Amino acid sequence: MARQRLTDTFYKTLDALTPNKLILNQCRLEGNRLQIQNQTYDLSQYDHIYLFGSGKAVIPMTQAMQKLLTPFSPDTLIVGHTHIVSHTQTSLAALPNTTYLQSTHPLPSEKSLEAGAALKAKMASLKPNDFYIYLLSGGSSAMIEQLVEGVTLADLQQTTQLMLHHGVPIEEMNVVRKALSQIKGGKLAHATSAQGIALVLSDVLGNDLETIGSAPLMHTTKPASGLGILEKYALLEKVPPVVVQALQKANIVPPTHIHHHLLATNETVIETATSLLEQQGIAVRPFPFRIQGDVEAVADKIVQSLPSQKPAQPLCLITGGEATVTVTGNGKGGRNQHLALTLLNRLKHHPLANHLTLLCAATDGIDGNSNAAGAVVDAQLLTQAKTQGFSLQHHLENFNSHTFFQSLNAQILSGATHNNLLDLLIIYIHP
Q: Which of 114, 296, 363, 383, by CA, is between 20 and 30 Å from 105?
């Protein structure tokens, strides 16, 4: 019952925060005036209107924005990582006047370079009296790229793979990516003389606009050293030498003046889930921290924050964010399933072990290299695992949480949501 309650709450949270709804709830067109949040743009003063975009949410964001801008028939070029026919309810026929480029995630590829070149060329063709709207969401960093001279795609792929496997947080990964790119860190904005704005879905804690999607339209005001980051994670000797040379020569680009509208964040996810739980008569209390950093340290903080006595009434503890995982095994899973399995292991001797149900899931619907969003677990799973001969410790050590939860029917299978607002963690304490 509790596991189903949390799963339903997660699905309802996803449904409330679809990119389509987020745009149509915060943007409206009255005549020629486009209002986005508290800003108004008079579109009649521009010669042509364009839509650009990249990231996991780009297809539904584009659908909503094109619907809103129907009178202007915006010329559209977008980049995503989904096959537009087989994995969505969308076809190009439903996206008029649109060029859609399919790229890759989480590793960049030749498609990323092709998409980056096409996007930059199209933006460069705009005139000073044109206006563009850029739809930016998580995953964009891998999908669009144009590399600095001397760095090859293989160099970038190797560097990205090393950072992923060594638990480098997204904020620090993007510092390195920006220095190797001719698009990131505000460089794409310098391709055009047209005026533009960006609509953003945040996939980073703190919602730093200089980090989201490696900030193609936002220049860096807080420069950090890519060399220092590689050194911090003992990667300087592992990445290709040309990467080190490029980082040594990295320059900051001139400021840009592209206004960014933040449409939704991980805080929005937490607030929405909290409201849904409270509507069910469940008290909700936030954890005093967000999920970030090494998954083992995150698990420690969660366990330490749990009460030792059961509450008189049902209580949910809630937080969100994104943990990092340093993978040493060759199993299948992701940070959410690995965190859920780690907590299941650590909480088995907790005084409230039989009163806890835990959900940990990714809002993009894809956790790591699996097809699950995450997992929902309780003490009964330990009994099931023992009965069926599954070793929790073995699956932990091999980073094979997906197989463990799949065998016990404890996965959350939302499918790809075409959104990305980080992860959600709920612990339900039932008396």
A: 296
